[in-house]
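Quick bug: Reverse transcriptase domain-containing protein output formatted oddly.
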Amino acid sequence: VAQEMLHKFKKSKGSKGFVAWKIDLSKAYDRLNWDFIREVLWEVGIRGRILELLMQCINSVRYKVILNGELTDSFSPKCGIRQGDPLSPYLFVLCMEKLSHIIQQAVQDKAWKPVQICQSGHFISHLFFADDLILFRKGSVNQAIVMKKCLDDFCSLSGQKVSFEKSMIYVSPNTYPELAQTIATICGSPLTTCLGKYLGVPFIHTRVTKATYQDIIDKVQRRLSSWKSHTLSMAGRLTLLQS
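Here's what came back:
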């Protein structure tokens, strides 16, 4: 879907352009507000004893750090969820749904004008997968203000923080340069001609060539080589090291 949206951008004509904002959340897991998590769980119908058990799993964690080579006394954090905990991804996704609801409400109020992916197709305002976020809307100053406000409201509620300097603004080619720069200034993120990767897959801005997915092929080959070395016998490993 993300790639199709970029294709839509490249083919767009007329005086009204489109904007995509790729969001980078700073330490997304570590910043979640515990009161916000409780509120989200309550809203989705998790209450009573189950809610208290879940919150106990979240706020009972204790950490120790190594300072000058020695372990400090244990201490409790005031926010965030543990990475590596099997419960954490589900909690994070539920919390990110709150941002989705804020955006959907803005769309229903006609304050946020999403992008129609094709004629008679769906209107797309955002794509979320965990902390990989891309926001879409029509290119105008008012739309930029609305989008920034929705994001600021969510961050205020959840404790999240956007790394604006690492986030990127991509505009369709038919957007006036002056307007594009104004939108980037309002959002606080730099303009780009390439959004990089989404979910590990590079966005295709030009014709597909052999080099387009070479990084993925190299990564798979490195992983296969690693697996192969683990299954070798001791004699085989010695041969591999000497080769």
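Actually, after a second look the formatting is fine. The first helix runs from residue 2 to 11. Closing.
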